[in-house]
Amino acid sequence: MDAIFKALNDPARRDLLDSLRRKDGQSLSDLEQVLDMSRFGVMKHLRVLEDANLIVTRKVGRFKYHYLNVLPLQEVMDRWAAPFLQRQARALTELKLKLERDTKMGKPDFVMQTFIRCTQDALWSALTEADQMAAYHFACNSVQGNPAVDQATTFILPNGDAMLRQVTTALDPKFRIAMTFEPLFMGPDAPTSHMVYLIEPQGDQCKLTIEHYDMAPGQEGFGEGWARLAASLKSYLETGTGLKAAMQQGA
Fold first, then answer.
1. Relative to the CA of 27, which of 40, 69, 98, 208 has its CA 20 to 30 Å away?
2. Phi and psi (nearest 5°) for 115?
3. Counting Cβ atoms within 10 Å, is residue 23 exposed (0-12), middle (13-18) or buried (19+)?
4. Which SS3 state, helix, strand or coil, does residue 250 take?
């Protein structure tokens, strides 16, 4: 947390974050236009932001792109400010993220990254076992179908309606899951997109990256859903309780 406060303490670095908030996925050349300083100076500021995990980078070909990562800021808000905020104000911090990743799927429209204090096995189980997904999903209390290649997983709302259907397209056990994303809550004709979970074990914690591809116009709000899911998953694995339960109790 000290690294976050240090990174935010400099107005130049705040200007870089503001620029990425307005337009995510910028190259170094793009960001040089934001600050009146040398290329080397901009690189130093970007390194501080990257060390604080406030930005993440993806390289495609010879270009390196920078993306705003707001989950560390959300964690700061949860610890220090959330008790004093209304739920509507807190939602403003759940910003849409975009990352660049060199895959066959091309450039993702949205990427979110968080660190969870858990084992790789525990995180994998939480992402692949229907009963666990139901326990921490922020809106659904029932999930049908464990993720398996070419098999569907359906998320069911408390009223019995299907909210989301996903078909697993690839599994790299304990490291990667690729799935379709069919937002049934938007109607039967809503375009299908694609998402990926990436797991990287790092000592006593795991880094989870969520990437979303092929989002149609009007689906930008998916970012808020991913923020809620990631926060609830982290709480579930670290405390045993998903944020859905806390929200229901406090409603």
1. 208
2. -115, 130
3. exposed
4. helix
Mention the CATH class of domain 2-68: mainly alpha
Whether the Cβ atoms of residue 4 and residue 54 lie closer than 8 Å to each other: yes
Structure tokens at 43: 């690189």
Q: Do the Cβ atoms of 154 and 204 come closer than 8 Å?
A: no
Burial bucket for residue 5 (CB in 10 Å: 0-12, 13-18, 19+): exposed
Read off the pLDDT of residues 46-74 as tens digits, 9 standing for 90 and up. 999 999 999 999 888 888 899 988 778 77
Instruction: Count the Cβ atoms, other than its own, within 10 Å of residue 81.
Output: 12
pTM of the shown model: 0.62
The 3-state DSSP class for residue 188 equals coil
